[in-house]
């Protein structure tokens, strides 16, 4: 039986066990991770669960929600690039999960899925998106040879720049770097709620020993920082920021290279350890990540709109007003 569960109805232990034993486990699917990334105002998540006759979860699918125009719509949270139908059953058809999500919620502004849809609904808009992955099971010398010429040159420059790299448990310098050097470039700005979500997420990760924060210092000033998340067979480059000095001095190249150097040659449970750059769709950043020799890994973006006509008209009016202000 496929059931839609409110967060309060989710059996957390059973849910997380289902994600952990699935064919494609990913940290974004765990209940505690979902709790953190939907902890902001007007956010929540519900779950679809396929249960057997004993009530055990055979498969689960998280549905993240955001309140817009007075209704709950499906929307991918920050720091959670994609989700999936999680199950150990290789024969499971995920289509009923997607159909149920789109029947229960008339609007999906964006839902990103790790696995491709076998039979997307006619009313949904589908488009591919990509992240960049680097297989770390090879030795560092082999990895470094796959850097392109510019990356090798910039790494040499970074190594001669005089950086001091430190580990930290304090995310505040990283958030301050982002606020001062990146936030103004994001369309619509960055609300205080987004920083609060990131703080909550980092705390949840640190409680489980999964987060690593590193800072690059120059002349007693923090000029760059990065948050790396390690879970299962994946290291995720989840968040980063740098000043102009950090960018000119290639500090982030140095921080990434140190992670790759420290983990090169590793496998986890007979699987290669992967470094996930969590690529955005901005070409310059994608090119930067690809310069380390990373390869594209595709996932799927799904959008749909089955809202009542009155809500659709109201939404268009609100968008027009916002653009005019």
Automatic annotation (TrEMBL):
Residues 152-262 form the BioF2-like acetyltransferase domain. InterPro entries: Acyl_CoA_acyltransferase (IPR016181), BioF2-like_GNAT_dom (IPR038740). Transmembrane segments: none annotated. Signal peptide: none annotated. It holds the Pfam family Acetyltransf_6. This is BioF2-like acetyltransferase domain-containing protein. It comes from Spirosoma utsteinense.
